[in-house]
Amino acid sequence: MGHTHANLMVHGIFSTKNRRNLLTPNIMPELIKVVGGIIRKRDGKLLAMNGTENHVHLLSIFHPKHAFSDMFRDIKSISSDWIHEKFSESRDFAWQTGYGAFSVSKSNAVQMEAYIARQVEHHKRQTFEDELIAILERHEIEYDRKYVFD
After folding, report:
1. What are residue 102's DSSP bridge partners?
2. Do residues 52 and 105 make contact, with C-beta atoms less than 8 angstroms apart?
3. In terms of residue numbers, what domain contains 42?
4. Among the four residues 51, 96, 107, 110, which has the most C-beta atoms within 10 Å?
5. Does 3 reside within a domain?
6. For the residues of 20-78, what is the DSSP string, one character each?
7. Contact between 80 and 95 (Cβ < 8 Å)
8. Tally of structural domains, the chain
9. Per-residue confidence in pLDDT tens, the chain, 150 aa
10. Is residue 2 part of a domain?
11. Is 12 within 8 Å of 46 (Cβ atoms)?
């Protein structure tokens, strides 16, 4: 094949360190723009992003020349530095060490975007911890609960 063809759509999830409620309503809209810019600079596209005070979900297309681990490292590192600089009251902000990355087919993209848009409503009924465990199980990912959360 003469060219590389890929559609690497990923549902990413990561939380604030110790799931502290640090993502205030004044941070989230700007954070989405910053994360979108980080992904665009790496030849990808942010399709949706939302979350609550302690975690975010994103739906993105990543370019195949960038490893998922590098993308998430850069998203978390650069956005954390941006939060420190932009919001002086958040100097102790940090993301958790890990992340969840789950493949999404094009046929499920619209449903995933709607799910991400409803995060605030969704978490009135389910905790982040229960949500993440359910997602891990739905994707048949083996885990030890004592190591899922830092």
Report:
1. 11
2. no
3. 8-143
4. 51
5. no
6. -S---TTTHHHHHHHHHHHHHHTT-EEEEEEE-SSEEEEEEEE-TTS-HHHHHHHHHHH
7. yes
8. 1
9. 668 878 889 999 999 999 999 999 999 999 999 999 999 999 999 999 999 999 999 999 999 999 999 999 999 999 999 999 998 888 889 999 999 999 999 999 999 999 999 998 998 999 889 899 999 999 999 988 888 876
10. no
11. no
CA gap 60, 81 in Å, rounded:
21
Token readout for 106 is 């094009």
112 within some domain:
yes
What is the domain-level CATH number for residue 94? 3.30.70.1290
Q: Looking at this protein, which amino acid is placed at residue 30?
A: E
| 1 assigned to some structural domain | no
- Contact between 94 and 79 under an 8 Å Cβ cutoff? The reply is no
What is the token pair recorded at 99? 């992340």
